């Protein structure tokens, strides 16, 4: 696909690619001008302090760029985040909560352990059988595990059905495809790599079948109607349709990520709605996999209510100076996790690239959920969700919408 880049957009893309030379994984996806990528690859690695300065200069010049106001606002927010990441890379101290606010346009606070304890009581009441809460939770996961040797086939079966449903609801670009592959020992359960040209590869950790609602949640998040669908629709609508080349790159630790993760977190509600647990159980039963679908669906909101404890862990580690071992115990206690999974989260949170990223799931889901709930009377959830797929919104823009509704 050939897109004519405005000068400001070319500078933004070059900046992102140069950051990607310095931080492995910083460029989440790229499907832009190959010649530009070759030029950046042939350069000597840039000085991160100079990249921070370039991000600030470019942001200051957006008013003279000729881009419309919405594109300027998007690029300004992205450039703020890039500048912060570059300053950190250059060795400048950045307080963790300031880092999060700059990356994602959100302010974060510690959650309430009393609320977590109340959720524990609700989980205890919901799960069948005698015994302590942790034993009941572990027994539930054992009963509902998707074994590693059957995970790929089960995911593909759910994906095939969801693809048809999402096409009917939202319209998928002709020719889009997503493939699935397995890996091991990753600090995440699944990872979508968008290649451009309406193609994605989703890599699954072999042990992801131990998590609640892995199916269909993994597919709705990563593929239909989550990340893959969003990339495909934006490539078709924004890049090919409107010539907005800035969307040919996606950069980690930017406001774009918070909206993408929040959108994906609500994919199951948008695509399937109530009853998704039974739908999944019936589909997997045909493949000889038994899960308590209706119980999984009832339990999931309670498990989600414990997710802020994962964000707490990041604050404790990076803002309060807590010991990693103590944070593992905090996660085990409040998220009801086995030790290996709690240790995996801490590993993720101590990675230099990913340490702030858990915020995107917690705060992204909160913000997008509130925005979806505040839709105009008569507008369906699917219609509201379609806007998230087709337009590049920002966290600040969604909050503006919510404030406007409150004033009404």
Key terms:
single chain, 408 residues, mainly alpha, 2 domains, two-stranded antiparallel sheet, 20 helices, 62% helix
Q: How is this structure best described in words?
A:
The chain is mainly alpha-helical and 408 residues long. The chain has two domains: 88 residues, no CATH class; 295 residues, no CATH class. 62% of the residues lie in helices and 7% in strands. It has 20 helices and five strands. It has a three-stranded mixed beta sheet, with helices on one face. A two-stranded antiparallel ribbon has the order 1-5. Strand 3 and strand 4 form a beta hairpin. Helix 9 packs antiparallel against helix 11. The longest helix is centred in the middle third of the chain and has 23 residues.
Mean pLDDT: 96
Proportion of beta-strand residues: 5-15%
| Helical/strand content category | mainly alpha
Number of helices: 20
N-to-C CA distance = 44 Å
Weakly predicted, low-confidence segments = none
What gyration radius follows from the Cα positions, in whole Å? 21 Å
Number of domains as seen in the coordinates = 2
Shape from CA axes? globular
Q: Major beta sheet, specifics?
A: 3 strands, mixed
Order of helices and strands: HEHHHHHHHEEEHHEHHHHHHHHHH
Query: What helical percentage do the residues reach?
Result: 55-70%
Major β-sheet strand ordering: 2-4-3
Number of strands: 5
List the helices and strands and how they pair.
Layout: H1 7-22, E1 27-30, H2 34-42, H3 48-61, H4 69-89, H5 96-104, H6 113-126, H7 133-143, H8 148-170, E2 177-183, E3 190-196, E4 199-205, H9 214-222, H10 227-241, E5 249-251, H11 255-265, H12 267-271, H13 276-285, H14 293-305, H15 308-318, H16 324-335, H17 339-349, H18 358-373, H19 381-390, H20 395-407
Parallel strand pairs: 2-4
Antiparallel strand pairs: 1-5, 3-4
Helix pairs in contact: 1-2, 1-3, 3-4, 4-5, 6-14, 8-9, 9-11, 11-18, 13-14, 15-16, 16-17, 18-20
């Amino acid at each position: 696909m050939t897109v004519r880049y405005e000068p400001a957009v070319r500078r933004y893309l070059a900046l992102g690619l140069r950051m990607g030379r310095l931080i492995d994984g910083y460029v989440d996806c790229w499907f832009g001008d190959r010649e530009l990528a070759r030029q950046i690859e042939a350069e000597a690695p840039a000085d991160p302090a100079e990249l921070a300065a370039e991000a600030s200069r470019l942001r200051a010049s957006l008013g003279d760029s000729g881009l419309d106001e919405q594109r300027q606002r998007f690029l300004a927010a992205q450039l703020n985040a890039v500048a912060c990441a570059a300053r950190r890379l250059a060795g400048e101290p950045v307080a963790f909560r300031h880092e999060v606010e700059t990356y994602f346009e959100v302010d974060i606070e510690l959650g309430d352990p009393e609320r977590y304890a109340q959720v524990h009581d609700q989980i205890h009441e919901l799960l069948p059988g005698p015994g302590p809460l942790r034993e009941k939770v572990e027994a539930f996961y054992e009963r509902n595990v998707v074994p590693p040797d059957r995970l790929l086939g089960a995911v593909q079966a759910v994906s095939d059905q969801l693809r048809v449903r999402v096409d009917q609801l939202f319209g998928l670009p002709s020719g889009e495809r997503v493939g699935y592959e397995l890996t091991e020992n990753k600090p995440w359960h699944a990872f979508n790599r968008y290649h451009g040209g309406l193609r994605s590869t989703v890599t699954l950790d072999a042990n992801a079948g131990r998590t609640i609602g892995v199916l269909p949640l993994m597919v709705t998040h990563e593929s239909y109607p989550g990340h893959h669908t969003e990339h495909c629709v934006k490539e078709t609508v924004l890049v090919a349709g409107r010539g907005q080349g800035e969307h040919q790159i996606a950069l980690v630790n930017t406001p774009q990520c918070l909206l993408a993760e929040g959108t994906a977190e609500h994919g199951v509600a948008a695509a399937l709605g109530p009853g998704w647990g039974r739908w999944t159980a019936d589909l997997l039963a045909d493949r000889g996999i038994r899960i308590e679908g209706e119980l999984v669906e009832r339990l999931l909101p309670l498990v989600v209510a414990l997710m802020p404890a994962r964000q707490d862990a990041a604050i404790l580690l990076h803002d309060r100076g807590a010991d990693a071992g103590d944070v593992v115990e905090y996660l085990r206690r409040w998220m009801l996790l086995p030790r290996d999974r709690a240790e995996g989260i801490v590993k993720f949170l101590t990675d230099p690239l990913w340490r702030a990223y858990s915020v995107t799931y917690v705060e992204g889901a909160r913000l997008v959920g509130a925005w979806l709930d505040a839709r105009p009377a008569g507008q369906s959830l699917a219609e509201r969700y379609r806007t998230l797929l087709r337009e590049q919104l920002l966290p600040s823009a969604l909050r503006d919408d919510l404030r406007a509704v409150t004033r009404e």
